[in-house]
């Protein structure tokens, strides 16, 4: 069985922890591990291989996290833009053997009952071998209005229904016939493509063109889809495109301790709590505070007489709200986007294929960064039109290209790159290179980069 892991989505309801360049599946929420890493480890117990569908910006972030958990032999399909789950799954299945059994799983869900989950996977695999498409119906623990539902008669699906209002959800749960729709699926690659051909042929036709034109590298272990071809694929979910129409659908009832962590109120339940019901956080001092979720680890957080509150403290943004109102975080993100803020997109520390950079301070005409370059890596050969840069080496030895000159800069030494000058930073050493970069100019945005040559094939 091949685990097809979908890494799309920006997780806006978990802002400011989750950003477009560091969505919730890659955020290290639990003991230094991400939800993506936990998904890989959980499914690798029963799946023989992983196939990751991701956008191009998150490719190297995913690769780094896979290496940390020892998953190195992994296939990738990179989407230049998201077109929902049906096209993503179709593109991946076009690159597989038609008889391959595919387990489609989101990368940002929690599954607490591993043994029960593996038992459900075995049942799903048997259905898939017989030509069925399988969905996993989560045994509801209450009348949840944030999930879609599946009405079932045993293992036969009667219908899929949209997110209900509270009264309807109560009736669904009381009937015993309804399950939450988990977004986890299992089928043969050929079965999915055949059903897609029947019920959404426009998606399959466009996907075939996109896959045929895609750039394939490392013996097809890396597939890069062209932007125009991707945009030509109609956007639709697997539920609407296939599952709700097909007569070949089975459901596996699943009591597996599942959560999609769609908002902070669901995240609250994933942490250990102290005697006052607050999540355990060494940086939180609570006086008379109870039943609250307090996230942040860089500075001391002190609260007095809070009850059922949410506090999320990050280096560049602070969120405070009643925990019950956490579903409204998306409205904050939408407003920040409307104001032209980068906060919904860019975290303080940004992963790049060569290492990381962290914004230490930013103003109208200058920006300070801490840049870490991994051993053997180098940034693109590039220039900037609107800013100059000063580099100060903190540790390691930098190999610096400025114009036609190549030279070394060692700890406590610095160099200057004038605006418009072609330059490159490289680490030829065996230890990480750390520098402080000061940008000065009329504009210091990340899009002021003209790449002349790049090892990672970025534009």
UniProtKB/TrEMBL annotation:
Q: Which UniProt keywords apply?
A: GTP-binding, Isomerase, Nucleotide-binding, Nucleotidyltransferase, Transferase
Q: Start and end of every Nucleotidyl transferase domain?
A: 3-275
Catalysis: reaction(s): alpha-D-mannose 1-phosphate + GTP + H(+) = GDP-alpha-D-mannose + diphosphate
Supply one GO molecular-function term: isomerase activity
Q: Pfam families per the record?
A: ManC_GMP_beta-helix (PF22640), MannoseP_isomer (PF01050), NTP_transferase (PF00483)
Which residue spans traverse the membrane? Answer: none
Which intervals hold domain Mannose-6-phosphate isomerase type II C-terminal? 345-454
**Keyword Nucleotidyltransferase set for record:** yes
Per UniProt, residues of the MannoseP isomerase/GMP-like beta-helix domain are 283-336
User: Which Gene3D superfamilies did the record assign?
Assistant: Jelly Rolls, Spore Coat Polysaccharide Biosynthesis Protein SpsA, Chain A
What Gene Ontology biological process does one annotation of this record name? polysaccharide biosynthetic process
Give the EC number(s) listed in the UniProt record.
2.7.7.13
- Note whether Ribonucleoprotein occurs among the keywords: no
EC class name? transferase
What the record says about family reads: Belongs to the mannose-6-phosphate isomerase type 2 family.
Q: What is this protein called?
A: mannose-1-phosphate guanylyltransferase
């Amino acid at each position: 069985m091949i685990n097809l892991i979908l890494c799309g989505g920006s997780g806006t309801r978990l802002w400011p922890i989750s950003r477009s360049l560091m969505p919730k599946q890659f955020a290290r929420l639990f003991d230094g591990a991400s939800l993506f890493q936990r998904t890989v480890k959980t499914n690798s117990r029963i799946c023989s291989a992983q196939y990751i569908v991701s956008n191009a910006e998150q490719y190297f972030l995913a690769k780094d996290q896979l290496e940390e958990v020892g998953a190195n032999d992994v296939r990738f399909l990179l989407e230049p833009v998201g077109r929902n789950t049906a096209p993503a799954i179709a593109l991946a299945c076009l690159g597989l053997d038609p008889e391959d059994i595919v387990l489609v799983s989101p990368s940002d869900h929690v599954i607490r009952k591993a043994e029960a989950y593996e038992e459900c996977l075995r049942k799903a695999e048997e259905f898939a071998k017989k030509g069925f498409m399988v969905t996993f119906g989560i045994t509801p623990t209450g009348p949840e209005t944030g999930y879609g539902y599946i009405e079932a008669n045993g293992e036969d699906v009667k219908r899929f229904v949209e997110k209900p209002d509270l009264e309807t959800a109560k009736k669904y749960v009381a009937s015993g016939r309804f399950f939450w729709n988990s977004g986890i699926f299992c089928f043969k690659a050929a079965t999915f493509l055949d059903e897609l051909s029947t019920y959404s042929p426009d998606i399959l036709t466009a996907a075939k063109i996109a896959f045929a034109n895609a750039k394939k590298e490392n013996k097809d272990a890396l597939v890069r889809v062209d932007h125009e071809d991707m945009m030509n694929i109609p956007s639709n979910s697997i539920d609407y495109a296939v599952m709700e129409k097909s007569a070949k659908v089975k459901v596996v009832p699943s009591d597996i301790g599942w959560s999609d962590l769609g908002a902070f109120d669901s995240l609250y339940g994933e942490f250990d709590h102290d005697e006052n019901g607050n999540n355990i956080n060494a940086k939180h001092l609570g006086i008379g505070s109870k039943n609250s979720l307090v996230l942040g680890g860089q500075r001391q957080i002190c609260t007095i007489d809070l009850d059922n509150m949410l506090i999320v403290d990050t280096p560049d943004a602070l969120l405070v709200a009643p925990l019950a109102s956490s579903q409204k975080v998306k409205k904050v993100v939408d407003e920040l986007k409307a104001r032209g803020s980068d906060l919904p997109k860019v975290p303080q520390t940004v992963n790049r294929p060569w290492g990381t950079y962290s914004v230490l301070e930013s103003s109208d005409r200058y920006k300070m960064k801490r840049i870490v370059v991994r051993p053997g890596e180098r940034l693109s050969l590039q220039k900037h039109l609107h800013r100059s840069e000063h580099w100060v080496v903190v540790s390691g030895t930098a190999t610096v290209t400025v114009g036609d000159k190549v030279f070394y800069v060692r700890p406590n030494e610095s160099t200057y790159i004038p605006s418009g000058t072609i330059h490159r930073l490289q680490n030829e050493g065996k230890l990480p290179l750390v520098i402080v970069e000061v940008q000065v100019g009329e504009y210091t945005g990340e899009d002021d980069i003209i790449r002349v040559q790049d090892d990672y094939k970025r534009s």
